[in-house]
Amino acid sequence: MTDYRKYYKDVSAALRTGWWCFDVAKEIIYYDTNLISLLGIDYEQISLSDFLLQVDPLQRGAVEDAFRIFPEIRSFNETFIFSPGGKPFELRGILNVIEDDSNGRVKCGCGALMILNDQLAGERHRKQVHERLRKGSPFVNLSLETVRIYPWEWDLSERGTVHISIADRKRLYSSNQEEYIGTIYPDDQELYRDMLDSFVHGGTDHFSLLYRSTCFSKQLRWYEMIGMAYRYDDSGRCTKAIGVIKDITELKRSEEAHVEERRRREENNRRKSMLLSNVSHEIRTPLNAIVGFSGLLDSTIDKMERREYLKIIRNNNETLLQLISNMLDLSRIEAGTLEFEYSEFDINDLLSEALCLSQAQAERKGLYISFTEQLPECVIRTERVRLLQVFSNLLANAIKFTSQGGIRVGYRLPDEKALYFYVSDTGCGISSDKRDSIFDRFVKLENHVPGTGLGLPICRTIVERLGGEIGVESKEGKGSTFWFTLPISVLVSKKVKNISGETRLPKVRSTLLIAEDNEDNYRFLEQILKSEYQLVHAWDGCEAVDLFRRCCPQLVLMDMKMPKKDGLEAFKEIRREKPSTPVIAVTAHALEEDEERILKDGFDGYFSKPVDEVKLKEKILSLLAAD
Fold first, then answer.
1. Distances in Å between the alpha carbon of 490 and those of 303, 379, 383, 412, 462?
2. Whole-model pTM?
3. Closest Cα to residue 412, out of 404, 403, 420?
């Protein structure tokens, strides 16, 4: 062991290198005896804070950051000016993790501290290093292998031989320069040749070079070569050079990951800024109409004008609520938290529901909706709620941009690869300059038509998450066909005969029980529903259960927060009385988890306040039609 220590000391002195360790928890740096001698200091350890005080002020922040992130990236590789006792040294510090604690946290790092600009070792030491490098040493090789540092030596006397000692304690790699250059990545070979030529012609006597090579591994890895001249001929030309090669692949990967993370953050910030700018405009536009026409209601007594003002306010309310809903979906998409729960269902039932929800809106414009192509049965396994959202968005767009004619909806199985769905309208069509960007955010066909420009981007995200594709075929003035596919893997069972038909909703007058303890909220529901239904009002949960038993309503609108008995308790009692009666929850709780929780409790529908009049009527109608 004594010989190994002497050998280690000779090698370290010749390479102007010593070993140092960093205790992460205690923030203490330990020097070996060789470093103590090289730096001219009289202590074996130093606190990190005192160490940083001896670093050049212009570099201190970068070196401190490198120590702070060392436990995360598990590597330290920095060059800096260090002045213990006032004498400046240019140092290259390298640390690798050598020990973790029981919780997997980095405990200690060890590596080399190299002096780049101090002339210390004499010719006698260099000769010893030359011989020892050729013979090898288990002790030193094992130490170097731990931190993936490979000592090397050049013989430039004939401009052609390079000796590289590989710290596997078994062999000495040796070849001529051209053979070694052949292991270097082609894009980096010119840098290596330039550095070699500079040594040969006396342009430099030390260097640091980064390149990629397959010399030590079958895979391409990153290395840093640090070297210095230590022998010259009579003309002053370098004939010998020594140094080390450090494997920095993991460090480069970490740097690339940090660069990619920074690029991603910058891109997200740019997109957020653009999003906020667009959202500000989209919110202010309907708000301006809502505030403006709300004020005009007080100043007019003309019934026709008041009706027109209320219509404008209602339309802009719908636009604003749709924007908020789309923004919530968009934020979940950006955060990667848009949840998908897969189940099996017949696509015919889902399409019928989507058509029922859109039927009233189409009829107000005098349009027809036809379910023109389908399979008698087609059971698929996919995300039902998100798929319904896609159809609802496509149908809403078709109705919005169609003034006469109607909308055809259908699907088919053209091959054994994918199901093909479409929503086709006889509307205004899409100009060629907008066709390619129609699925981008905030792209609108007509600026004067209400809308947020977010529905189609959300549709694209959902379809792609489900493994399909989405697109549009359109001719300006001739209508549009929005289509999307789902992979055949979602298909559970099918029947292959196509049928045609048209979906229409039954018009039924039924009794509705409204459980609502707030008088204003009840008056609003009463105004929008009393012309179509018989209404029964309960002021609290107990009264709701009592009236349900006595009146036997066909459907219940249940406020979730009421005195005496809350909505969930009343709902459970009603379910025990008659499980088949549909119950819709109406609540001020508007988060996605609230909706998921309420629907999991067994409610047939969910509406957050403020309630959308059109959607509420459509939902009631669809539930009564199904019943």
1. 54, 9, 10, 14, 15
2. 0.40
3. 420
Backbone angles phi, psi at 412, to 5 degrees: -155, 170
Lookup: tokens for 503: 């979906």
- 186: tokens are 């082609």
Q: Are 432 and 475 in contact, with CB atoms under 8 Å apart?
A: no
Q: What phi and psi values does residue 158 have, to the nearest 5 degrees? A: -110, 10
Q: Which residues contact 610 (CB under 8 A, 6 or more apart)?
A: 317, 321
Band of the pLDDT at 423, cuts 50, 70, 90? very high
Query: What average pLDDT does this structure show over 567-578?
Result: 89
Q: 546: exposed, middle or buried (C-beta count within 10 Å: 0-12, 13-18, 19+)?
A: middle
Mean pLDDT check: name the lowest of 31-45, 130-144, 344-358: 130-144
For residue 387, what are the contacts with CB-CB under 8 A and spacing of at least 6? 350, 462, 466
Closest CA to 227 of 16, 35, 19, 37: 16
Q: What is the mean pLDDT of residues 221-226?
A: 88
Structure confidence at residue 225 (pLDDT): 87
Q: What is the pLDDT of residues 439-493, one digit of tens each?
A: 776 555 554 455 556 778 888 888 988 899 999 998 888 889 999 999 988 877 7
Counting beta carbons within 10 angstroms of the beta carbon of residue 318, is it exposed (0 to 12), middle (13 to 18) or buried (19 or more)? middle
Cα dihedral across residues 329, 333, 335, 340: positive or negative: positive
Q: What is the mean pLDDT of residues 247-262?
A: 85
Cβ burial of 411 (10 Å; 0-12, 13-18, 19+) is buried
pLDDT the model gives residue 523:
86
Q: Flag whether pLDDT at 170 surpasses 50.
A: no
Return the DSSP state at 438: T
Lookup: tokens for 512: 């509705």
User: Which is more confident, 156 or 123?
Assistant: 156
d(CA 20, CA 29) in angstroms, rounded, equals 7
Q: Which residues, listed in sequence order, are joined to residue 586 by a DSSP beta bridge?
A: 559, 607
With 80 as the cut, is the pLDDT of residue 31 above it? yes
